[in-house]
Description:
The complex is a heterodimer of chains A (about 230) and B (about 220).
Chain A: H1 6-16, H2 27-32, H3 37-61, H4 70-92, H5 94-100, H6 111-119, H7 126-156, E1 158-159, H8 163-167, E2 176-177, H9 186-189, H10 191-216
Antiparallel strand pairs in A: 1-2
Helix pairs in contact in A: 1-7, 3-4, 3-6, 3-7, 4-5, 4-6
Chain B: H1 4-49, E1 63-68, H2 69-72, E2 74-85, E3 88-101, E4 104-113, E5 118-125, H3 177-200
Antiparallel strand pairs in B: 1-2, 2-3, 3-4, 4-5
Amino acid sequence: xxxxxxxxxxxxxxWKNNPGIVQLLGLCPLLAVTNTLTNALGLGLAxxxxxxxxxxxxxxxxxxxxxxxxxxxYVMIIASLVTCVQLLVNAxxxxxxxxxxxxxxxxxxNCVIIGRAEAFASKNPxxxxxxxxxxxxxxxTLVLMILGGTRELVGQGxxxxxxxxxxxxxxxxLRVQVYHLDSPFLLALLPPGAFIAMGLLIAAxxxxxxxVEAMVSPRSDVKAPVERVRIS
Amino acid sequence: xxxxxxxxGLLLALFGLAAAGLVALTHEGTKDRIAEQQKQQLVATLxxxxxxxxxxxxxxxxxxxxxxxxxLGTREPQPAFxxxxxxxxxxxxMETVAPDGYNGDIHLIVGIRWNGEILGVRTxxxxxxxxxxxxxxxxxxxxxxxxxxxxxESEKDPRFAVxxxxxxxxxxxxxxxxxRAYVKAVKNALIYFNSNKAxxxxxxxxxxxxxxGAQP
Lengths: 232, 216
């Protein structure tokens, strides 16, 4: 099997087959924690870390895992990685741990991760699998951040509110008060706002699709080797 | 040759062991730091509600478990931290629960001087509506600081209610349930404190003090 080139993987993960707005995987954390940019960034980074780790492990072990038990093995790999990340966040970013709460362990159920393990990492060598994990994680983080930024801006008129929880005390300077609201615009901060913002984001992506594709697309004759998987 | 089912079973067990080992290693590496973080968080909270010139012990190490479904809002024993000056108790910070918040339990901690005067109140954990009910969070507004200095005159003290109910505490625009539940929880904590003051120091110690101790 010929390995898809790095550039193509990046293109697939960041735009064409973006896990957030095209594959629509991991919607639960995606919609739930994107009420501020800081939370979005935190969950995005945690997901990225787990994704890279699980892709590397699955790829390393791919010859040793019999086909019949691959799913339980992936689940174990992912679950233990997530637990480790959770412990690490708890130890080194306690404030963020308090604000992400339940959504950290929920990374286990994020279908992006087992989806990439099954569809990509189990068939490709380590380097390229890690790259795929990194790019998919970045694609997911970007979507989270766009959603989080939009909702925070519309909802409370700020950006990076509470960034010090994630990045340490110096980060209070990141906080931007774009405009002042007497009372926050609740719709944007509550889950319905997440659905609406998500819908608009997908619509915008579809609208821009042909233009961006014409602009950046690598050779269009390359048949996409990254198949679209859905695991429920 | 080993049948494939046995082989797969063994492999799975092996993976399970490796996964558990990885988690155990990480846990071992981070548990001290996590405990340290939690302790720091507690110390910081206590410092906010117990003025430092009042006591000279370490209240976070002098912890008692109090239990009262009626007054502390939950069946679970709640920790209370005793501040002493030269081993005489001068104040206490007790955790309590407002069970009737708009969106589930609100966990709060109330600092009370030994004569029953409120020293300070902070919210520990809540799920109230962002922007409406979350004004109980000190990072959002200074509403919780209004409690300081109050003392309960009787169990029916009318000042302990939101203004809409004839009391002295502001409700929030669009959210009355949250402050109402909150004021009631603070009042109940005071009632509990006043009527159990003599027994408080005999309450069982928190399990966290002797690290390995089993939870009661």
